[in-house]
Amino acid sequence: xxxxxxxxxxxxxxxxxxxxxxxxxxxxxxxxxxxxxxxxxxxxxxxxxxxxxxxxxxxxxxxxxxxxxxxxxxxxxxxxxxxxxxxxxxxxxxxxxxxxxxxxxxxxxxxxxxxxxxxxxxxxxxxxxxxxxxxxxxxxxxxxx
Length: 145
Ligand SMILES: O=c1ccn([C@H]2C[C@H](O)[C@@H](COP(=O)(O)OP(=O)(O)OP(=O)(O)O)O2)c(=O)[nH]1
Ligand SMILES: [Mg+2]
Fold this sequence. Notes:
By secondary structure, this protein is mostly beta strands. The chain is built from one helix and eleven strands, in the order ββββββαβββββ. The chain has a four-stranded antiparallel beta sheet, with no helix packed on it. The chain is globular and about 55 Å long.
């Protein structure tokens, strides 16, 4: 298990795994007061945490499926990428795709953080790529049945 430095405001709880083998740790809104996200509205919600990941690890900010299904609330950037060299505050770009106002209260768990390994590569420019059965087929070319 990696040990990762985290800097946080004193009022902020450490993100934690909610079950023993969860891959994500829930992220809480670090707000002074509740905010209302109207339908179609987006906001960048602070978490009050800064982390120092070793090179080779990234953190992904992902939506919580319960909020997505119940309220249509997700992340406007799909999945947020926290680079290992980022030292700023982790923020959550939420959007209300639902039809009702969505209330975010201080401390609400509104997204989750998943730590992942990533690889670095260097490019080798070429004129031809290796052949495969798929070739250039994509975007549903194998059908749906
Ligand atoms: O959901 C997110 C996504 C990003 N970030 C922070 C961490 C990340 O390392 C930095 C930059 O993110 P990204 O590369 O996705 O944004 P960009 O628009 O390309 O900004 P930059 O030019 O700073 O890389 O912003 C967050 O706090 N939350
Ligand atoms: Mg970037």
